[in-house]
Amino acid sequence: MVPIPSDEDEWYRNSSTNRSKVESSVYNSQSLILSTDRDYVDVVLRRVTALVEHMETMRQAPDLSDERSQLMSLTARAQSIGIDEAARQTLYNELIALRRQVAFKNPLLDFKDILLVEHDIYTNGSHGTGSHMCDQYYGYNGRKGGGLFLLRDAFTEDAFPDACLLSPIVQNGRLQGDRLLGGSYLSPDLSYDGQTLVFAWAEGVSRVAESGKYQQWNQNTCYHIFKMNIDGSELTQLTDGAYDDFDPVWLPNGRIAFISTRRGGYGRCHGRPVPTYTLHSMNADGSDLITLSWHETNEWHPSVDDNTGMLLYSRWDYLDREDCVAHHLWSCFPDGRDPRARHGNYPLPYTRLSGTGYYSASVDGRKLRPMAELNCRAIPNSQKVVATAIAHHGQSYGSLVILDTRIEDDSQMSQVRRLTPDYPFPEAEYVSGELSTHVYGTAYPLSEHFFLCAYNKSIILLDAFGNREVLHESLSGLRCLDPIPLRTRTAPVLPTFTAQGDNASDAVAKLSIMDVYNSDFPLPEGVEIKEMRIVQVFPKSTPNKDEPRSGYGDESLCRMSLGTVPVEADGSVYCYAPVGKEVYFQLLDANGMAVHSMKSGAYIHPGEHLSCLGCHEDKWQQAYSSTPPVAISRTPSTIEPEMGIVEPMNFHRLIKPILERNCASCHQREGEGPDMSYDSLKDYAWFLHGTAGTGLWGHEYAGSRTIPGKMGAHISRLYTGGYLDEGHHGVSLTTEEKRMITLWLDLNSNEYGALHSLTAQENGELVWPLHDVDTDDPIGTD
Question: How far is CA 479 from each of CA 118, 337, 483, 762, rounded to the nearest angstrom?
Fold first, then answer.
């Protein structure tokens, strides 16, 4: 008998629990190993039969009469030879040859050559020393070797990798006259006319081993973006400097979107420098470089959905919540406007607050679906997306999935189907960081059933039935990545509605919400929303986790209120919007206290009009009204500062003086309760963490969502204990003083408004953060 390979579905075949989980979520059941499969002859025979039957139904279906005849003959032999091992081995070899013959007749293979990159996986120890979804894209971690190749005549037995893309000489810039030999190649993309490619390259300088410290980011250690013709001519450098620029992708209008550390800031959960990288774009010659995303954490792998023209990418989102589960599919327009979470951004549990009827903290959302999904690409003529399910503490390899965001998201597997059930979701279903599960890389979809795919050290043609045909095996011994058909494509057209870079104008940005009451979590009965607060969060400006802390919350961000705007009686909002900064929104009641708050970030570009239907509206049960929202019929509101000030929330400057005037003398005289120092108020405040250990499981109010009415000042002990009321030893706060304390509590009860000049802040001085601030216009609407 021909054995089933030990790595083929082994992880679930011997586990009834895993088998049931996989069978309920598989994209096509033919890709499974079935209980009726005696050996791999049965497996391949079944899968080839499914392939033939499908191809016979395709448009421009090929003539498979000869292959059908051969298949029938092989099927009859399989039934007649029983368990004769030698005979079944011979049959297996013939089946494999037939499978390749059938696969190469696929009418979707209307191209001859494939662009690909060979790139080494980063294996520098555990995630504590760098093996992480972020670290793999810093140039100093780039492993030297590999390169760009064209696989010529890919679907013939004469296929060969053309190394012509390794030999060109740089025509411009700092590296003029050099060849890009020996460095690390990454993320190629092909223009719509099929003539020009862009890619990233780094010299590949490792960290300093003897000191254990990372090299400084500089022009010699970073990934930079290059462009050249497909014949290897006109190699030009587009970006340079002390920034990692990578993942370039051609936009339909001829610009190039890419990922860059130019955003500034660092990740919040690392014990080492991990610079943030997000979406940017530039002209095809490297000019007019602009920021598309002001998100404060990392983003990956932009690609254009050629069905709609939208830009797809993955974003790591953990504002005031667990840090290891939300890095999934997002989309925006090619000019960066209207970023939306398409899938997977709010994992279970939503909260661990007891008595609400929602999910409890006993539900581990990290185990219910992929930990992260990168390499997202739209499937042609479909509304589905293929992606790689990966580990958080790993790299962009794992198991392939198909996402269908038209299905209602249950925060589990409702929108996810396993394209490659032979391997589990790394970390979510297997040992953290196990490279043995990091098998599948980028998948380039040809249809809902056929994919060019990076598989270990090869490029394969994969189908939904489980058939794999090897097209190329690595020449360098490194991983293969990013297979792209060498052919022309039709570019979708979407207009630009932002006003920055070459399109800069005096156009103002606006924000509108149709109905803040339109929410999948209803607001408390009888609560009337009067205002919406716009809160800015500042990127972390120091490299190591909680050094220093911003406040009580682990991995928490500094922030400030930009002000409030009115909410009309029908729940509508229309206002001028701040630009070039990450913000979130809070709904305020008549007392100026937050009732509902986002645990995600938004940003708005100059000239953009960002519009939402509601606040966490149910996307599958929309409530439309024939009556225009009241706010839209008037001019936009201006953002009004709270208490007349717009500055970062600094406890020592804005809160401590109030408490000292009203509370400190009594507490000092009686010698009881908090002494009004920041540390003494921890049990009376309200705050959320942004970390796994204490964020999701160890804090009463944690989870991926806020529960309306159960957050902020409303449930802080300062309010629920009556400590700010006149009945508490005659405390008499002014309206403004109570509103300021409310604001402090609603904004996570932070101590500092910036992560530098701490002594100055403790002395009550105004200290501005290092990113996203114009001190002449802190609101950002002028």
Answer: 6, 35, 12, 52
